[in-house]
Amino acid sequence: MTSAYESDPIFQTHPLQVLNLVTRIQSSEIALPDFQRDFVWDPTRTAELLGSIMSRYPVGTLLFWEQDKEQSFASRSFDGAPTTSLNLPSVLVLDGQQRLTSLYQALTGSGDERYFIKVDEFVDIPSRKVREVADVDFEKAIFSMPVAPKAGRRSQALLPSHLPIAEVHQFDQWLDDYADALEADPQTPLTAREAKSLYREMRDKYISPLKTYGLPVLTLPSSTSMDAVCTIFETLNRTGKPLGPFELLTARFFRQGVNLRDLWDEAEANHRSLKEFRIDPYNVLQAICLRARGSAQRSDVLKKLTGDDINTHWKSVTAGFAGVIDMIQSDCGVTSQKWLPYGMLLTPMAAVWEQQKDLKPLDRSQALRRLQQFFWASVFTTNYDQGANSQMGADYSRLSKWITAAEEEAPEAVSELPINAATLRTATVRRKALYSGLICLLVKNRAADFHTGQSMTATRSPEAESHHIFPKSYLARQPAGESSELMLNRSLIDGETNRIIANHAPSTYIEKMKATYGEQRLADVLASHAIASHETSGLLRDNYTMFLDERLEIVIQLVEEATGKVIQRDVTH
């Protein structure tokens, strides 16, 4: 009996040799779908791939999609290959772009790097034997050099024993010259004849695979639907391949005349903050789906979003992300992406941003305050620690109404969820959202630079970093107590001030700071960081627990002001 796969195969499987693949890429018979991401592998990964092939190790399966004249799928050539000809490529590469580009560039001498083999690493000249794979140091045996010199990149001097990988097809001619050089070298106990015999054996074991190694290829027939291709992309992404939801949707919307990659490039060019805050373009699609479908769930974004939704909402949503970023930088102390408590929190905020733009000035000001209140409440209730996609949908449903009408039901972080004082007291710097939220809250409340006395901003104090107030090494010398890594023991401190702090007791370094900065200015700066510094304070008494309790009380007041919530102070530790 004939199996279903034999009678009606879903896909074809067959290996293709490296040389065959390189030749077909050169002739544009094999190309990339236009939505594929750019080549991103660094030279080290390419060298590792070459080493695996020379070792005859598995390097993964390639996934191709057959094309015919009925397909309207745009294609492009591989990086370094000739521009795609007017003829339609016979196949598009759905998975394997990075590997194939690496092999093509290394074997044709194209791209920004040139790759070389140190042939002597593969042989043991005294014993006149070719080394086994386990005995070859491939990190040393394969190296690359940039075509154009790069700052900070040290180049190797090329020696006669360095075979350009782009010339492996001329190995025998190269060996004639190298064998003669070895015979002429009095330190090498090989005649030209012996050298040729040894290195030809090395060629058969290690060089030949660079031409004859067969990479497994799965080929989808041209009749495969676009939806099926997108589903395959989704499956690849789930199993760890470098394909994200944005790439999947780029494929889905291409046939609808929507080029997401071009739209994203344009958005980043128009709004520099999108790149500075590393906004994922998929989050933009989630915000659009919130507007169009009321959901940010991945399944809804992938299946329900349409090209018309993109055309309707793209510009206003990307502008919304830029507007929200500007607001949290200016009014919430988020000086950079590094200190953003939750990246996902920006998505529902960007989705509703446009609603406040046309309000009267007073109404707009109130809407922005409510948006900031939502930001702070979400951070300090840690409402985005889990289930962020579901949370975005729930928050958008309320936020879209409440932002312009205070009498509407507020998002749950604002109206329902408590902020736990004990959590603030015991949270370590590993609680990234809370820790980042505290730092941003201090900056929002005009935390001053110790060195200059000026309020910190992204541009004014870029060198300030988070440092310990009670030095870690100082606490280590004290009887066992509370962790030095509590977030309440951190603040933004410039390098010069941190060198004064060193490993000293607070009472000691405070006296040094007074001499450097002045007593009143130092007191003002410490107060701006929510640090009590009166004579009986925990800081000046070198009492860590007292310091933490005092700072907690000040921080609670700041959190209550930002969130509009009352925090119960029943803290035990």
Topology:
Layout: H1 4-7, E1 12-17, H2 18-26, E2 30-33, H3 43-54, E3 62-66, E4 75-76, E5 91-95, H4 97-108, E6 113-118, E7 123-124, E8 129-130, H5 138-141, E9 142-146, E10 162-164, H6 171-184, H7 192-207, H8 209-212, E11 214-220, H9 226-238, H10 245-254, H11 260-270, H12 272-276, H13 281-293, H14 298-304, H15 307-331, H16 346-352, H17 361-380, H18 388-402, H19 412-415, H20 421-426, H21 432-444, E12 465-468, H22 472-476, E13 490-493, H23 495-501, H24 506-517, H25 519-528, H26 544-563
Parallel strand pairs: 2-5, 3-11
Antiparallel strand pairs: 1-11, 2-4, 3-5, 6-9, 6-10, 7-8, 12-13
Give a quick rundown of the structure.
With 573 residues, the chain is α+β, with helices and mostly antiparallel strands. It is built from 26 helices and 13 strands. A hairpin with a 4-residue loop joins strand 7 (123-124) and strand 8.
Major sheet: arrangement of strands: 1-11-3-5-2-4
Rounded Rg: 31 Å
**Beta fraction of the residues?**
5-15%
In round numbers, the mean pLDDT is 89
Main sheet properties: 6 strands, mixed
Helicity level: 40-55%
Report how far the terminal alpha carbons are from each other.
74 Å
Query: How does the helix and strand content classify structurally?
Result: alpha+beta
Shape: flat
How many H/I helices? Answer: 26
Low-confidence spans: 1-9
Q: Give the tally of β-strands.
A: 13
